[in-house]
Amino acid sequence: MDENFNYRLWRYDGAQGELIPLLQSAQDHFGYIPRRAIKYIADVTGTPEASVYGVITFYSQFRLQPMGRYVIRVCDGTACHVSSSRMLIDAIEDELSVEIGGTTSDGLFTLTTVACLGCCSLAPVMMINDETHGKLTPAAVRKILREIRRRDAASKPPQAGGECAREAGA
Amino acid sequence: MNRKVVVGMGTCGLSAGAQAVYDRLRELSEGSGCEVSVTGCIGMCFREPVVEVRSEGRRTVYGDVSAERAAEIWRRHVLGGEPVTEWIIKTFGEEGVAGSEEKFLAKQRRIVLRNCGVIDPESIDEYEAAGGYSALRKALLEMSPAQIIEEVKASGLRGRGGAGFPTGMKWSFAAGNPGPVKYIVCNADEGDPGAFMDRSVLESDPHSVLEGMIIAARAIGGTAGYIYCRAEYPLAIKRLTIAIEAARNRGYLGRNILGSGLDFDLKIKQGAGAFVCGEETALFASIEGERGMPRIRPPFPAEKGLWQKPTNNNNVETYANVPWIITNGAAAFASVGTEKSRGTKVFALAGRVAKGGLAEVPMGMTINELVFDVGGGIKEGRAFKAVQMGGPSGGCIPAAMGDTPVDFESIPRTGAIMGSGGMVVLDETTCMVEMARFFLEFTQNESCGKCTFCRIGTLRMLEILERITRGEGTPEDIPRLEDLAVKIKEASLCGLGQTAPNPVLTTIRYFRDEYEAHIRDRRCPAGSCLALVTFSIDGAKCVGCGLCAKNCPVGAIAGEKGKPHLIDTSKCVKCGRCISSCNFGAILRS
Questions:
Q1: Which of 93-132 (A) contact B at CB < 8 A?
Q2: Is A23 in the B-facing interface, judged by CB distances under 8 Å?
Q3: Which of A16, B225, B402, B473 could form a disulfide with B266 if both were Cys (CB 3.0 to 4.6 A apart)?
Q4: pLDDT (mean) for B402-424
Q5: CATH 3.40.50.11540: which residues of chain B?
Q6: Do B526 and B433 contact (CB within 8 A), yes or no?
Q7: What pTM, to 2 d.p., does this model score?
Q8: In this predicted complex, what is the ipTM?
Q9: First-to-last CA distance in chain B?
């Protein structure tokens, strides 16, 4: 996170077109966009809450629910798709007992797909937080997930959702 | 000793492990007097991580470099002066030593990618040393705005975002509209799945895009600029931010640039994940902080664009061409390519091609040359089936039409579009019905919902395609798809809807037999549609570990420990969990 959300809000000078950047900093700060952030942003920008909500739901980047500490984004772009990215998703769903869009019960992983990460020559690809993994196989994916679990269990006891996602992604 | 080691650190390199290589080299370089630095992407993504050793004008490029190999290269080449010949993939200025990937670059012509993989993208000094910002100096101090526009017109440069509109003409429209405030916008919302040209240019040579935009500002009278970049490209955003700051400090952005009287500054706007924002009027709505929905044209952006002010919008690659044209002249640019499509085009080769990466070739090169001579043919020696060009707006061109030249005239005749440069190569294992379904799912999901046919028509088409891939298609489905396709094209406001049916139409046109096999024979010729294939186990590969049997939800797999297992096809529900659990690739689909 490069800027504090409150600082951003406080600094907001009424410039045009700042709604999306404000939502992005709220999401950076909380890991998702909580109800109270919608209200702050609506008040500060003078936009009706319903319109703010409308913008949030239009863009796939914005989330209204907390995410896991590790956000898995499996690429399902064309190149990954023809390189069997579906099998990676199957393996992750199986390994973590979670479906696309869901978060594991311990708050560790959220599984999502993206349209394209732009690393097509390394297909199939996935990103876990800011790290990209390429040339994957279902077996390699399972190994990476187990390694994260192991490392995480060794470092600290798991905490719940949002705040942690921010730490890991920062 | 004057050797310098450069590590390719674009997103491709980093995801292949370039960071560990860089760290190791930095460690080794402590106190050695040799410099270790960073560059962007040379385009050979298939051999990443890439490391280059430079000395006395010679450049030796190594591929597939691990931290261990880096240490070996350091010891033998950097310290010992002897190149490690077996790992060399390309050399520049070195007589008698050939790398293993000389062919990849042999047919390329690098204008847009001139600095990619050569300079450090975070160093404005290196950009300037490579001739950077000299075009800006020339444009601001020696040319009038009208002369700049004439030069761009004469070069024949056409928009590289896909539509191919003549850039000089576009600039003259925006220049012709009066106004104290005009915007220069760069579309870096590279949304087509399978395309990564713009990411690579932004990560490897961000200043070339800035320079192009500042020249455009001079030509048009632009007062402020925006680069709309997708949030999925964090490294590109980081390097752009550094570049803008550096350009501002050198006086290339801000007030009275180079004493010419031009006031111009730039901001980055991050996209928030909506494909439709690649359409320019939707992109403006998004910059304004709205839902990214397209607007009716006219009025065109040159008259009323961003915040209702005259606006010029080009994509990354278009702007990156501009400094080269100003420096080398319109004639030099126009001498490359074909009569109506001048210059080069950057392609992102991906999919089932052996050598996936970025290739910049003269317009008019054939698809076959790109796939075989540059891309090295198909992976695992399989058969070339088709290329998919233009992403969800484009289409599939079959291998039989491989001698089609890639330019703005020839490609649309096939029913595909030139697009922004994504070229996904397909082999015999790709099912074309499934390919069409994949793209329809994408556009259906990304439709903003404004136009009824785009919103609902694409969903109806998707439902039909899903049915066909499940083996539940009927003979009326093909004419029904064609009928819907025509209506969606005609009744949609923006490019997304107008082109959404293209993947379906081109696959019906060239691969009708595959549709018919699914519908009539309940068979998927590519062996890809799960509902229509039979699972079996390759006895030669199976080691009898029992993992598949353990993972099978219906108990259809049996066998003795240590001996090849068997699948009972009467019980198998084709869920595919055995495939994802097998570590030996022993599960077959046919």
A1: 94, 114-123, 125, 130-132
A2: yes
A3: B225
A4: 94
A5: 124-333
A6: no
A7: 0.91
A8: 0.87
A9: 60
